[in-house]
Amino acid sequence: MGFLTALSRRRTLLLCLLIQLLQVTSWSSAWTQGAPRLRLSFRDLQTSNSSTVIIGSINSSSYQALLLDEDRGWLLAGAKNHIFLFHSDNLNESPDKIYWPAAKDHVEHCKLAGKNAETECANFIRLLQHFNKTHVYACGTGAFHPVCTYIDLGLSSEEPTFLLIPHLVESGRGKCPYSPLEPFTAVLTDEKLYAGTSVDFMGTNAALFRTAIQGSRQHYIRTEANQDHWLNDPKFIGSYSIPDTHSPDDDKVYFFFKETAVESNQWDKRIYTRVARVCKNDVGGKRSLINRWTTFLKARLVCSVPGPEDRDTYFDELEDIFLLETRDEQNPLVFGVFSASSAVFKGSAVCVYSMASIRAAFKGPFAHKEGLDYRWVEYKGRIPYPRPGTCPSETYDPLHKSTQDFPDDVISFMRGHQLMWEVVHPLNRKPVFVRTGAPYLLKKVVVDRVEADDGQYNVLYLATDEGKVLKVISIPKESWQSEAIVLEELSVFQKPTPILNMKLSTKRQQLYVSSVSGVAQVSLHRCDLYGKACADCCLARDPYCAWDGSSCSRYFPTNKRRARRQDVKHGDPKSQCHDIGDGFDDVEEKVIYGVETNSTYLECVPRSQQTSIRWTVQHPRADHSHELKNDDRFVYMEHGILIHQLETRDAGIYSCMAEELSFSHTIARYSLRVIEHEHIGAPPSRGGAASRVVGGVRQGPTPFGPSHLHYKDYMQLSISGMSADEYCDQIWHRTKRRQKMHNLKWKQALENRKGRVRRHPRTE
Ligand SMILES: *[C@@H]1O[C@H](CO)[C@@H](O)[C@H](O)[C@H]1NC(C)=O
Ligand SMILES: *[C@@H]1O[C@H](CO)[C@@H](O)[C@H](O)[C@H]1NC(C)=O
Ligand SMILES: *[C@@H]1O[C@H](CO)[C@@H](O)[C@H](O)[C@H]1NC(C)=O
Ligand SMILES: *[C@@H]1O[C@H](CO)[C@@H](O)[C@H](O)[C@H]1NC(C)=O
Predict the structure, then answer these.
(1) 163 within ligand 3 shell (Cβ under 6 A)
(2) Which domain holds residue 682?
(3) Nearest 5°: phi and psi at 412?
(4) Which of 287, 417, 529, 633 is the most exposed place for a label (fewest CB within 10 A)?
């Protein structure tokens, strides 16, 4: 082993320590507190057999549209120029595929217009919706010339036919965006497609459309164009058909989107999130608002963390919406993922809304602007009858059978009053989950309702722009509070890539996740990975898992055959497990030799990321052990403790204690023996090994201060093509091997010199 390579390895090891320190100090406590119990890399997931990734075809990409049929067991994925049919029990089986490219002249036109040939000028499938028992409606961007048609899947679930109907291909204008990148939403209900999309090449003319897709006449209704108070540069996120009352006349479609807010400060325009709705039976006005919505209303959806003196932190940009069905079909729970990013602040939050609070905003006062130089205020004037936004109903009022029967004053009021004055607040007026300072933003959400021993829990699957999925559980507490726990953080794809879509199959207990590169299938639970002890299983608080007497395994609420140990609410192993007697603390004591003035590293890897670690030391002649403070000399690391500039008085018994909830136990114990200088051949140079090695990075009184990390050191890491974490991982293992060798060497040396060395840290 050459001296130079040894030196450079040391340097990189120190660099790794620096990077870790830097990460710990720069990511706020909000992030570190919400550390996942299990963090599984792509490789961990593959080796535990709980995830499969499928690339539909090497000629495709951008798997944006997913459609799951739970009953028939298939998953459709819409991608570039292709639609794939996966058998959802086993994605591994090679999928059937339909090749549906854009017309050649449209591709040429698209390229001539300056669009990217690879990433824009193709048919990117954006929409897949159930049409009837046998057919799925599909739309693609068609190289900036959107097209739609039907896919015949037949009735058989074993052998679905999978055919595109070419003679039914029709224009996708008002149903599908022109661009593969434009945010978009659509829902097909009663043979009508409700879509939020733009209808021009530039993507500037965006509207909420309803198109009757059956029948030759392409009839549609839309929001008024070029009217900022209707829609102002909207980005559409979600749309759902939700009944409002028992009367079908009252059925509405709700849209979720974000837009530049007209009512915010005139000079500092901000993005707000909106919920909007229209009546399904809206057919437009008669004299005015012909083919325009006459029932379109919108309200602001707020997601904020309460702060002192009303200075809330707002997460204004909606990223995704998920509706969790409840027993009452009129009242699903609305989950929204929001982000906030500015020069000083970047973060994500999840807020939950009740339909009752959304409806309350639409029943409240309207917002009003008198004229160009006026501010938006609450409208206090007379409201015409029938109240604007009400769906026409013959049974309720025979004079107003249809929106074409609405009186002129209602129509003219609707022209200027789309915005409600009251905003919609989330349940408990705050997010259920917040993540700030993390290196990623949350982009997608799906929610599973899980039956556990002590009640029902909402398990949130949150997908990031870096290919990760967080599995988060929200635990209700006293007085409307709740606690969010990150159970798992899964790296679903090999390379960090934004997650584009997610679907959850409760029947198969699988999550389907898509990105630019492919579709992954991930099992909802991997109970055995929480650990081999009852306490580990119980502390995990995963509602899918319970201790069955011999292992941590899937919990089935109906299975009463055996006593199952589970405590999601408190995660208290003392109440659940009998195996946590003395045995649990019975860790082997390892002897470690260190050299005076050199550094030494004691390893301690907690099984869970949520445990907090405490180190204690008992010196040879001391009565008690005392806690080690994280300071210049004793540095708490993610996987252990680093002791700088060893002194002879540092000898002693070091214990690493893991604390989680109220449960504490020892997970590593070392007897550290310090060898004095005079027992070593070569005297160490001034400053000791640690700071000398840091020489390349620059010396200083605290060589581990983040400020000493040089840009070029980061560069070296990125050149090697590995992430800092992977790199450091490798270095740890090498260092550990060397420490072992070195321990052995010193043990022998000491034994040879028995009688001279009498500094045994253990009081015998
Ligand atoms: C994963 O599956 C492979 C092949 O089916 C099997 O050999 C292996 O033991 C499995 N691993 C685990 C951890 O279940
Ligand atoms: C990919 O495209 C090339 C040329 O267009 C074609 O020859 C090849 O068969 C395609 N491969 C697959 C897997 O579809
Ligand atoms: C579903 O719709 C397609 C397209 O209009 C039609 O050809 C087919 O007969 C319909 N199937 C059923 C079962 O209604
Ligand atoms: C301790 O540091 C000296 C130089 O400072 C070095 O020569 C020696 O190898 C180090 N000892 C160990 C065991 O790392």
Answers:
(1) no
(2) 2-30+587-726
(3) -75, -30
(4) 287
